[in-house]
Design brief:
The protein is of the alpha/beta class and about 400 residues long. It is built from 16 helices and twelve strands. Strand 10, helix 14 and strand 11 form a beta-alpha-beta unit.
Length: about 400
């Protein structure tokens, strides 16, 4: 019996999801137990931890993502360095959860995105592509465990954005028979999944709304270089006053007006965008807290407008579950309460998974669908021509 056949015949899995987002702080690892039954939403998070990237590796990744020149040799070496960090995160979460690594059925790895150039206005196929470092084959070899990765490429090949991918997991795990829900993830980029009550997969609406923490974090590092990497709990922004006219100017950026499907990354909201925002803010005489307050309002208002303009829920929204680092930013959450009223705005922790672990859990779920040969993308959200089974499978030595 082949290794994949063994997985296909199993009814319950122990799996690890690995994720590193656009903030590039490190690798989130979630150890989960779950059934093979996709209609059974029960999932147990056994352990979660974040493996920070070594400082030099993170700096190099950020430089490449922000457009600094690099060689093919640089990329080759980074593939290996990222795979090592992802493998370390795998072993670390197994230790934390008290689970023998050899007992893990499979790993679902997002990899580290350093370039994301989806189809958009002004470009035609085949000028689109995506690059995630840390190949599944390397992770499988280093961990000994069958690894599913490279989730975005096939979607891109069929005209899709390659993102967002989490909405399929949102649909399986977080839809409700009684509530109209939005799942809002605020990482470096913010994205929404709209789940009408008792919805089918074809009723799900999902897309990137624009910047999440990306611009805030970049500005904070520039304005407060000796005070950490981000505005903890949004305290600095809370002490400032946003300049409405500045925010409205940047909300005129083409991405915000574009209809879904759409996705974003460093190309749209990276360092160049942040520096232009800072230059205009300083020209307007804003003090440092005011700059952060204005950038925060740009994030939250772009989310609110996206919901109103592109989702337009006919029966309203009952609750918004927030995940990602932005869910811990009190200023962001406070503004979202205003922007998304009368919906309740609550951390996704209320559904039983810590906000920080959500995306790593999602990639374990997506990998389960891959190994069971089941479609695992909301192709209407990505814009791909048809439903797909996303992900490349690399067999481990323990398979």
């Amino acid at each position: 019996m082949t290794a994949l056949r063994k997985l296909f015949d199993k009814r319950d899995f122990v799996a690890v999801g690995l994720m590193s987002g656009t903030s590039m702080n490190g690798v989130d690892a979630a150890l989960v137990r779950m059934s093979a039954d996709r209609e059974n939403a029960k999932l147990e998070l056994v352990a979660f931890e974040t493996e920070p990237y070594p400082g030099e590796l993170r700096s190099t990744l950020m430089e490449i993502a922000f457009g600094d020149e690099c060689t093919a040799e640089d990329i080759a070496l980074l593939h290996t360095s990222v795979a090592v960090s992802f493998s370390n995160a795998f072993f670390g979460v197994c230790r934390q959860g008290g689970v023998d690594p050899k007992s893990v059925d499979f790993i679902g790895s997002h990899g580290q995105t350093v370039a994301h150039v989806p189809p958009s206005l002004g470009r035609t196929q085949p000028i689109s592509g995506t690059l995630q470092l840390g190949p599944p084959g390397m992770i499988a070899a280093l961990s000994g465990i069958t690894t599913v990765g490279d989730f975005r490429s096939a979607d891109i090949a069929l005209g899709g954005q390659g993102a967002p991918l989490a909405p399929f997991a949102d649909f399986l795990l977080r839809r409700s028979k009684t509530e109209n829900r939005i799942v809002l993830n605020i990482g470096g980029i913010a994205n929404v999944t709209y789940l009408p009550q008792s919805c089918g997969a074809d009723e799900v609406v999902a897309f990137d709304t624009g910047p999440g923490n990306m611009i805030l974090d970049e500005l904070y590092r520039v304005l407060y270089p000796t005070q950490g990497g981000f505005d903890k709990a949004g305290a600095k922004a809370a002490s400032g006053l946003a300049l409405e006219s500045l925010v409205e100017t940047f909300l005129g950026f083409e991405f915000f007006e574009r209809k879904p499907p759409k996705s974003a990354g460093h190309r749209e909201f990276g360092a160049r965008f942040a520096w232009e925002f800072l230059a205009r803010a300083q020209a307007a005489g804003l003090k440092n807290p005011d700059v952060l307050a204005s950038a925060t309002l740009l994030t939250t208002r772009s989310i609110g407008r996206a919901v109103r303009e592109f989702i337009k829920p006919p029966s309203g929204i009952d609750v918004v579950f927030v995940s990602g680092g932005g869910s811990r930013n009190k200023t962001v959450v406070s503004q979202l309460v205003t922007e998304l009223a009368p919906a309740r705005v609550v951390p996704i922790d209320e559904l039983g998974i810590p906000a920080e672990a959500k995306e790593a859990v999602d990639f374990a779920v997506l990998a389960r669908e891959t190994v069971l040969s089941r479609q695992n993308v909301i192709h209407r959200a990505t814009g791909a021509a048809r439903p797909l089974v996303l992900g490349t499978i690399a067999l481990g030595s323990e398979a």
